[in-house]
Every structure is written in structure tokens, then in C-alpha cells.
Amino acid sequence: MALKERVRIGGRSARIQTAVHEAVKRLSAATDRSALTVPQIASEAGVTPSTIYRRWGDLAALLADVAVERLRPAGDPEDTGATASDLRLFIEQYAEEMSSPVGQALMRDVLWPAGENFPAQCCTFTRANLETIASRAAARGERPFDVEEVIDHVVAPIVYHILFSDRTLTPDYCRQLLQRLRSLPAAESLGQRAP
Predict the structure, then answer these.
(1) In principle, which of 113, 133, 162, 164 could form an S-S bond with 61, CB 3.0–4.6 Å?
(2) From CA 91, how far away is CA 86, in angstroms rounded?
(3) What's the chain's average pLDDT?
(4) Assigned CATH for 3-57
(5) What residue segments make up the domains of the chain, in order of their start?
(6) What DSSP assignment string belongs to 7-43?
């Protein structure tokens, strides 16, 4: 059963979810992640362990749910006034945030549970940010880029290197990925930050 089917939104259910999420965040800040247990989280949240098992199934699914919530964007990507600089700034920030120790831990939590679709939720957040930038381009009369091309040729290599290699994700590397995009006009400068 998918998580969204197990958790009712609103009222007491929302308060319990908030309390459990906050307990995970507090305990994660003070305790080694490998030492976290469902009974410990339940005690911190003021609920029974059976409440957590009933809602999330296991610790992995709970940690993934908390990670997805923490990865949810707080707002739209910054509007710099030009598509190329909007996209460059978003990709550089994405690479920096996801390659940080906190970002890496959140990505691992999202990928950990079997049978749940947490990674797809995170992809939805990234796609929505890119669609916002592409919509701004169209509204300004600029040529919008292909969102799927950016995911395939820019976001995917960044995620791969965060999870599976020791490559340092520099702003120069991010700009090199962006310069390979066919859907952006070659004349657009991706190398200079907009004022």
C-alpha cells in the first residue's frame, strides 16, 4: 500500500505526521542516523511505535517521507531576468545543495525503501522548478528549453556523481553540462552570472 493511501491529510493525522517528522529531524541532528529506532522516534513524538508502523510501515519509509518533505522547494527558482542565467543559477544551487552531506543523506533516505515511489516525488519537484524557468522564458519572449533534455543531460549526471562517484561538482562542471544542451541557443551565455 502506497504511503499516500495510508496517511489521511488534515486534523489529527496531520498533527501526528508533523510531530513524527519533527521528532525525526531533532533526533537526526543529535544522534547518529544508524542509531535511530522507531521506538525512540515514537517516544520523542509522543506517539506509540504502532502508530509509526501503521502509517509508514518501517523506519526506511519514514525517513524517506521526511527526506521528501525536506527536499520540497520552499518557493520558485530565482528569477534573474534571463533564461540562461535562471537555469544556470538553479543547476548550480541544485548541485551544491544535493552534494552537501545533508543533501546526500536525504537522497540516500529517499532511495532506501523498497516498494515506495519516493524518488519520483523528488523528480516532480525538480521538474516543476525547471518548468517554472521554462515558462518564464516563454513569457519574456525567450526561447524556452526542453525540460526533459535538462533532466537527462544535466540533472541526471549531477545525481549520478553525488550518489556513485567522488567527483566534486563545481560550478564550472555544471556550466559545461548546460552548454551541451541543444534546446538553448548557442549564443546564450551560460558562463556569466546575471546581476
Answers:
(1) 113
(2) 9
(3) 84
(4) 1.10.10.60
(5) 3-57, 72-179
(6) ---SHHHHHHHHHHHHHHHHHHHHS-GGG--HHHHHH
For residue 81, is it left (φ>0), alpha (ψ between -120 and 50) or beta? Answer: left
Burial environment of residue 82 by CB neighbours within 10 A (0 to 12, 13 to 18, 19 or more): middle
Closest CA to 45 of 18, 23, 24, 61: 23
pTM value is: 0.70
Task: From 123, 78, 128, 79, select the one nearest 98 (Cα to Cα).
Answer: 123
Rounded (10°) CA dihedral 178, 180, 185, 187: 80
Q: Of 2-11, 30-39, 131-140, 148-157, which range is least confident?
A: 2-11
Measure the CA–CA gap between 3 and 26, rounded to whole angstroms: 22
Using CA atoms, how far apart are residues 161 and 119, in angstroms rounded to an integer?
A: 16
Do 83 and 137 form a contact (C-beta atoms < 8 A)? yes
The CATH code that applies to domain 72-179 is 1.10.357.10
Of 99, 98, 80, 86, nearest to 178 by C-alpha is 86
Closest CA to 25 of 62, 72, 74, 57: 62
* Residue 61's pLDDT band (cuts 50, 70, 90): confident
